[in-house]
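Researcher: We plan to redesign the surface later, but first we want a full-length starting point. Tokens attached.
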């Protein structure tokens, strides 16, 4: 589809609609043309008669006086680029004899003076459709011969003229860029003899009746309004001083080749990519094209029009971006259907839907759970089919990760079917290990809890049942921002949960006041957490232990995951042998501290505490003992964060005030509502 679209664009832009899209070429050229370095015409001066309040005869007479005065000053040459209008049937003024003296005088071909003057050349203004003068012909066809333009005729009459080797007879046009003003002399100064003869000796003198700006004849790509004499002076400077901008034949061939090459790049690299990659590739390519055009013009003085080629690539990128969104929506819909089928135990429809999805880490996690479900239904051949699909689509990222076996002191070598590699961390509720499933060499994070040590005999069986029930509930959660639970079991008197492994760091790394995240980033991460909690709450699962340590973030992938779903409930309201409440009281909601029935609003309170700490580097409620801490959490309001850190808008205070409300019904109604509020705040945060 992208290739067909590009083909249509090529035909339109370089075919019937070429004149419409040429403005893109003009736009890019104009941006660079204003910055081309030019030198003014050497030893030149412009003398402009002011025609205001003067009749045509008076202007004509003043021309004669100035011409006579200038000739007597031993000037190099005189140019009448815009001579006074004289009807073809009218008699020439008497002073016209001065045009054929020893000092060369140049006038445009076709003017009555052309038959008398020493030199003549064709001068035509040929602006583009937008009335901007961008090019001028060097040669003009005339009566079967090629006649030089006025600037070229002036240069050729100079015995010391050396032609620019870049310019050949094949280059019929040169291009205008930026006009560097030539010195001007008032005619009154000449007529009143209030000047030194040295001011004109050896110079090129332009005489006209067109004051600057007022009598402008054209506008240049640089946006400057110039008169006929100024245009002639710039073109003459370019020809004589080797600073012309040209477009050789080989460069024109490149202009036709560029859109074809960009079309090939678009057709090969844009389809089947995600939107982020498409935007990145389009940006890099277009910037590269613009840079090439700028370098050709600014450094090589070569005009290469790539504006229309850029439009073709941009159009292809927009189409690919739109198609990627369509594919992404279809994939998301298929993933949702597959997850619903998997939760309902309908494994074959789930497999069919998952195979329609894009290959991602989240999909691989779901497919892994599907393979385990097939095994539980005594269908090993279907489980093997799922694993083979994972290997084909996920390859090196999922099925080929291998870990060496560890035998470190205090680390079990195997739990269930999982081979343990190394210890990742230790918490109040047990340890976390990096392990692998030997069947597919897949890395997992193994949360291990010494359940028999934490519970007395009369509580052990109830705790074991609650553990597996909660792990099963968490295993139903399939969300991009939630660590996927694959499996759970008990071995060697240790309860374990096998979870998705990501190479992320806990957000506790960013609670140090010296290492805080930018406010808008902290708000965005908490918004993602709120959305994930909203999904979990809708599935009937409450986390109970939201805190920075349970939020894992990968900066490289910009990925956030909530961990420990299905774990906190195990020790809810349980005390260790030392009587210390398990968990982290400073993040708990008032109802959790009071052992009331919990809802999802409790997680939102804990998320509010987490956000507060990420913004200022400390929790809102602090105390030296649990009793005082519980009192503060249940009765006191925290200090506004906008007063404590620059870049935090006051709207964040309102969001935190609502999230940290003492009564659950006064908080956000759900995580989705809280996520919207946080993202609104992030728009105004630094």
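Model: Full-length starting sequence:
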């Amino acid at each position: 589809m992208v290739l067909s679209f590009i083909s249509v664009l090529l035909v339109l832009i370089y075919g019937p609609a070429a004149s419409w899209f040429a403005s893109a070429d003009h736009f890019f050229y104009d941006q660079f043309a204003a910055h081309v370095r030019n030198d003014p015409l050497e030893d030149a001066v412009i003398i402009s008669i002011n025609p205001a309040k003067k009749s045509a005869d008076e202007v004509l007479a003043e021309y004669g006086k100035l011409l006579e005065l200038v000739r007597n000053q031993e000037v190099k040459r005189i140019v009448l680029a815009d001579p006074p209008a004289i009807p073809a049937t009218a008699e020439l003024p008497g002073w016209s004899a001065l045009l054929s003296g020893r000092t060369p005088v140049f006038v445009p071909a076709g003017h009555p003076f052309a038959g008398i003057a020493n030199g003549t050349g064709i001068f035509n203004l040929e602006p583009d459709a937008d009335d901007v003068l961008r090019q001028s012909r060097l040669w003009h066809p005339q009566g079967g011969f090629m006649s030089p333009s006025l600037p070229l005729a002036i240069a050729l009459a100079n015995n010391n003229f050396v032609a620019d080797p870049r310019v050949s007879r094949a280059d019929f046009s040169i291009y205008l860029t930026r006009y560097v003003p030539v010195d001007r002399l008032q005619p009154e100064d000449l007529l009143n003899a209030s000047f030194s003869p040295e001011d004109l000796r050896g110079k090129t003198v332009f005489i006209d009746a067109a004051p600057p700006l007022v009598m402008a004849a054209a506008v240049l790509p640089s946006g400057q309004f110039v008169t006929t004499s100024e245009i002639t002076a710039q073109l003459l400077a370019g020809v004589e001083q080797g600073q012309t901008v040209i477009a050789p034949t080989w460069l024109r061939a490149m202009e036709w080749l560029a859109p074809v090459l960009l079309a090939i790049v678009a057709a090969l690299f844009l389809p089947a990519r995600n939107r982020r990659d498409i935007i990145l590739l389009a940006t890099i390519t277009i910037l590269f094209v613009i840079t090439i055009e700028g370098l050709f013009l600014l450094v090589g003085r070569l005009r290469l029009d790539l504006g229309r080629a850029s439009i073709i690539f941009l159009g292809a990128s927009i189409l690919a971006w739109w198609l990627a969104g369509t594919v992404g929506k279809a994939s998301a819909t298929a993933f949702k259907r597959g997850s619903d089928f998997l939760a309902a135990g309908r494994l074959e429809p789930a497999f069919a839907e998952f195979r329609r999805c894009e290959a991602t880490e989240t999909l691989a996690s779901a497919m892994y759970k599907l393979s385990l479900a097939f095994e539980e239904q005594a269908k090993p051949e279907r489980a093997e089919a799922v694993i083979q699909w994972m290997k084909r689509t996920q390859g090196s990222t999922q099925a080929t990760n291998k870990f060496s076996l560890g035998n470190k002191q205090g680390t079990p070598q195997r739990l269930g079917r999982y081979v343990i590699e190394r210890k990742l961390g230790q918490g109040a509720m047990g340890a976390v290990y990096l392990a692998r499933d030997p069947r597919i060499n897949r890395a997992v994070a193994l949360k291990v809890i010494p359940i028999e040590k934490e519970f007395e005999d009369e509580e052990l069986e109830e705790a074991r049942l609650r553990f597996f029930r909660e792990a099963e509930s968490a295993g139903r959660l399939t969300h991009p921002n939630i660590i996927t639970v694959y499996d759970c079991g008990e071995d060697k008197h240790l309860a374990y949960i096998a979870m998705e492994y990501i190479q992320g760091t806990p957000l506790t790394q960013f609670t140090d006041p010296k290492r805080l995240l930018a406010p808008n980033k902290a708000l965005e991460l908490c918004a993602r957490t709120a959305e994930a909690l909203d999904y979990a709450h809708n599935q009937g699962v409450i986390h109970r232990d939201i805190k920075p340590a349970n939020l894992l973030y990968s900066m490289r992938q910009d990925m956030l995951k909530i961990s420990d779903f299905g774990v906190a409930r195990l020790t809810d309201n349980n005390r260790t042998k030392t009587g210390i409440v398990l968990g982290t009281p400073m993040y708990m909601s008032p109802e959790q501290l009071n052992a009331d029935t919990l809802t999802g609003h409790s997680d939102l309170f804990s998320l509010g505490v987490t956000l507060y700490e990420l913004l200022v580097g400390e929790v809102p409620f602090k105390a030296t003992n649990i009793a005082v801490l519980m009192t503060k959490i249940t009765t006191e309001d925290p200090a506004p964060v906008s007063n404590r850190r620059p870049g935090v808008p006051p709207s964040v205070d309102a969001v935190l005030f609502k999230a940290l409300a003492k009564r659950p019904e006064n908080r956000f109604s759900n995580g989705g509502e809280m996520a919207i509020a946080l993202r609104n705040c992030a728009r105004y945060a630094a």
